[in-house]
Design brief:
single chain, alpha+beta
Length: 150
């Protein structure tokens, strides 16, 4: 269970995970040692899943939002498709959702030609995919990895 110090630490590191422990400690009113121990625990428990650099996706290619509809709803089909999306380097986010659409994918490609090639080999060739629709992202107005904690 997370306490108020854990939440405060998570708030700080979501904004800047490169801060030294002493700076985090100063901001959350704990000792540097306590912050280090808590960060180690939060990482080992999987609350903090990784420490990454966020890149400007718009500058590095095309972002596409793809909705996928299946023609058969079986546990095996879902599991196989999920695994294929997890393994695809083009897919940066994959959500199974309730409703008419089965999956929403966030896909990145250097250009639309590369996306089309990926879609043909990955989606069109999959017998459980009934159809997919692609929305091209023109401009990203907000992108955040911050999870609200309060």
């Amino acid at each position: 269970m997370l306490d108020t110090f854990d939440l405060a630490i998570l708030t700080v590191v979501q904004a800047d995970n490169r801060l030294p422990n002493r700076e985090i400690a100063s901001r959350v009113s704990l000792s540097e040692t306590a912050v280090r121990r808590r960060l180690e625990r939060l990482r080992s428990e999987g609350i903090i899943q990784g420490d990454v650099a966020l890149l400007d996706r718009d500058a590095l290619g095309q972002t596409l939002i793809v909705s996928v509809v299946f023609c058969e709803d079986t546990a095996e089909a879902y599991a196989r498709f999920r695994q294929q999306m997890v393994e695809s380097s083009r897919v940066t986010q994959c959500y199974s959702i309730a409703g008419v659409v089965d999956f929403i994918l966030i896909v990145h490609a250097p250009d639309l030609r590369e996306f089309e090639a990926w879609a043909q080999t990955t989606l069109l060739s999959d017998p459980v995919v009934r159809r997919y629709e692609t929305s091209v992202v023109f401009t990203t107005h907000k992108f955040s990895t911050v999870v609200p904690l309060g």
